[in-house]
Amino acid sequence: MKKVLFVTSEAVPFIKTGGLADVAGSLPRYFDKAKYDVRIILPKYVCMDDSLKTQMRFDCRFYVNLSWRSQYAGVLESKADGITYYFIDNEYYFAGPKPYNNIYEDVEKFAYFSKAVLEALPKIGFCPDIIHCHDWQTGLIPVYLKNEYVKDAFYQNIKTVFTIHNLQFQGRWIMQAVKDITGLPEYLFTSDKLESYGEANYLKGGVVYSDIITTVSKTYAYEITTPGSGEGLDGLMNARRQDLYGIVNGIDDTEYNPNTDPFLAFPFGQADMVSQKCKNKLHLQHQLGFEEDADTMMIGMVSRMTNQKGFDLVEAVLDELLAEARIQIVVLGTGQANFENMFRHFSWKYEDKLSANIFYSEELAHQIYASCDAFLMPSLFEPCGLSQLISMRYGTVPIVRETGGLKDTVEAYNRYDQTGTGFSFCNYNAKEMLSTLYYAMDIYYNCRQDWNAIAARGMQCDFSWSRSAGAYEKIYDSFFESSASEKQ
Questions:
Q1: Alpha carbon of 264 to those of 116, 181, 298, 369, 394: distances in Å?
Q2: What is the spatial distance between Cα 354 and Cα 177, in angstroms, rounded to a whole number?
Q3: CA distances from 91 to 45, 84, 88, 182, 261 (A)
Q4: What is the average per-residue pLDDT within 267-284?
Q5: Residues 309-333: pLDDT tens digits?
Q6: DSSP per-residue string spanning 227-294
Q7: C-alpha radius of gyration, the chain, whole number
Q8: How many CB atoms lie within 10 A of CB 332?
Q9: HEC string of 50-70?
Q10: What is the pLDDT of residues 131-174, one digit of tens each?
Q11: By C-alpha distance, which of 61, 215, 39 is closest to 129?
């Protein structure tokens, strides 16, 4: 049995700020347990739920040499859903009301975490064949492994996989400060290693020194090799493109199951999707204070309200759309103040057409996915995206911009050959988005049978974690195939 260690700054069910936690906490459960022993290690944040901390048992303690510092580290252990979790304990670094603070604090925090993880392995008796690192917070692990631990027999055969969930976040900070924090030698801070535009860059280090790099969709894997989406690292990504893979994330098909979802007033499957979605829609309309009309097209958005998610496009056309179209829009989420206030204003101006819910509720999110006719995601960039996968699972037709994972997972509707699982537009342009919305409305109001067929095809798609795990297993297996061929 091969051993794999997921190293991450967050993972469900213990700590979550975004999609990274879903990937790191959910994916390990879906590997073939006869072939792989997959475990997870993350920081033990003080802000974790106390009820989860009580499930942890003390394993060991030691000290980590971080440059001129000698810092305490404890390791605790817990199990959830059959997976072993390890936690690095140090209240100096992991205190506070949230996992992430200012970048100048986090670069030291995650340098410490990276080295503590490597130091912990022989002490907990787990020598992984593969360390699977996630995002810039773990970027120094391959750097330390290939430079400081390479002569230690315990570490010599460990392979590394580095997954980029969002290239925009790279862990960049002042060069001299990072040298002092990490204790890494001077030769590593050059343009072909850790240096990037005059700063030290943790994510770049992870890409340079990992054996395999993955991203969370095939299109995003291509996009980051281009100047427009490479966030300044497109040259490096091109240099490593033979080792760069794109694997679309999955969703938990037990949590997001319209047949068993406890948040739905009227559960449904593929066979009764049309009638039951109609009942859920009427229920949500009543709950939101809308006119209860099953025929009016309802569009949902569940998202962080940021430019990355395309809310500037929405801002440009929202007044026109609400004034002229026969629609209802329900929005859930928080974000930039200008977008929050925009939705507050237009929900006052068009109270019968727009419901602005400037907070987050898991229950309401599920109801939106299940009750709406369409789901809008006009992202500027989207490495993978989960909301379009969830909406399709619930028979809600996605309307997306063709970028990253949105392009990979949503097939554009073709009315001539009756294919497709949603609607899409190419350019980041408000008028193009609006034109696509009107086209979708035309199909909804005038070709309802075709619309229902689009929704049905979306429900039939397999976006489970099992599919994603199978793709990662192929990458893991390639390490062992290479080893076997080298021995022959």
A1: 44, 50, 17, 10, 11
A2: 49
A3: 8, 22, 10, 19, 38
A4: 97
A5: 999 999 999 999 999 999 999 999 9
A6: TTTSTT-HHHHHHTGGGEEE----B-TTTS-TTT-TT-SS---STTHHHHHHHHHHHHHHHHT----T
A7: 24
A8: 20
A9: HHHHCCCEEEEEEEEEECCEE
A10: 999 999 999 999 999 999 988 999 999 999 999 999 999 999 99
A11: 39
- SS3 of the chain: helix, strand, coil, percent, to 5: 40, 20, 35
State the distance between the two ends of the chain, measured CA to CA, in whole angstroms.
21
Residue 405 — φ and ψ, nearest 5°? -65, -20
- The C-alpha torsion from 18 through 23 and 29 to 33, rounded to 10°, is -160
Among 303, 478, 468, 321, smallest CA distance to 391 is for: 303
3-class SS of residue 346: helix
The 8 Å CB, 24+ separation contacts for 148-155 are 148/184, 149/118, 154/121, 154/122, 154/127, 155/118, 155/121
SS3 49: coil
Which residue in the block uniquely carries the two structure tokens 């329900």? Answer: 330
Please tell me the pTM assigned to this model.
0.93
Q: At what angle do helices 103-124 and 202-209 cross, to 10 degrees?
A: 40
Phi, psi of 61 (to 5 degrees): -140, 155
**CA 368 distance to own-chain centroid:** 20
Please state the length of the chain: 488
* The two structure tokens encoding residue 390: 């969830």
Q: Which residue has the tokens 């072939």?
A: 35
